[in-house]
Amino acid sequence: MKRENDLRGQAAASSTTGAESPSPAKKHRAWLNSCDRGQSIVEFALVIPVLLAILLAIFELGIFLLNYQTLTQAVNQGGVAIQQLSALPASSGGTSDPCASVATAVIGSAGNLQTAGTNGIQLTLQVGANSPVGPSAAAGFSCQDQASAVQAGGTLPITVTGTYPCFAAGYGFKFLPAGCQMKAKAQELMQ
Q1: ∠ CA 139-89-140 to the nearest 5 degrees?
Q2: Which residue, among 88, 159, 95, 172, has the nearest Cα to 124 in the 3D structure?
Q3: Which residues in 150-185 are b (16+ Cβ under 10 Å) and which e?
Q4: How far apart are alpha carbons 72 and 63 in whole angstroms?
Q5: Sign (positive/negative) of CA torsion 113, 146, 135, 68?
Q6: Are 162 and 44 contacting, i.e. CB atoms less than 8 angstroms apart?
């Protein structure tokens, strides 16, 4: 055996003639280290479903918040549209269907939200304490037969309400209760 100095200046032994067989203690430690690899796979298999469920919950919450923000923006645009309508009757330059004007503004701002059918945005229009018009799907929302009552609202507040399903049930998980509905309101005065 030769003796060499390592980088720290200490003597290190190196064998040039052949390798010695490992002691039983070294064999036991090597066997224990090989068992640790299996343990990490088992730990990973136990933790990954929990991490995926948390990731899916965050993803679904993000979709819910995006849809809620989009619904609020669309209903606010419907409120702006009803406010800008003239309080004059249709024969004097007003609109013959104020609800259609509201629906057009809502659909234009709805982005990725569905606007037709029972799973789409459902609109309701109410003048003061009068009975509301709707709920009805935004696509096809009309109150032509009640246009004069809506336009005669004058100084009464007109409330536009929109509801939309939460759709927070993905991949078999249901994070929100069944029948969950997002709701947004805009209240304006016609001028």
Answers
A1: 10
A2: 159
A3: bbebeeeebbbbbbbbbbbeeeeeeeeeeeeebebe
A4: 14
A5: positive
A6: no
User: Which of helix, strand or coil describes residue 186?
Assistant: strand
3-state helix, strand, coil in the chain (%, to 5): 45, 20, 35
Model pLDDT for residues 117-158, shown as the tens digit of each residue: 888 888 888 887 777 787 888 888 887 766 666 666 567 788
Residue 11 is encoded by which pair of tokens? 């003597």
Q: Write the single-letter amino acid at 140.
A: G
Residue with token string 């200490």: 10
Contact indicator for 122, 136 with CB cutoff of 8 Å = yes
Count CB-CB contacts under 10 A for residue 134.
21
Residue 50 binned pLDDT confidence (cut-offs 50, 70, 90): very high
- pLDDT tens-digit series, residues 150-183: 666 567 788 889 999 887 555 556 666 677 888 9
Predicted TM-score (pTM) of the model is 0.68
Task: Identify the bridge partners of residue 164 per DSSP, sorted by sequence position.
Answer: 182
Phi, then psi, of 136 in degrees rounded to 5: -150, 155
**CA angle (71, 177, 67) in 5-degree steps:** 15
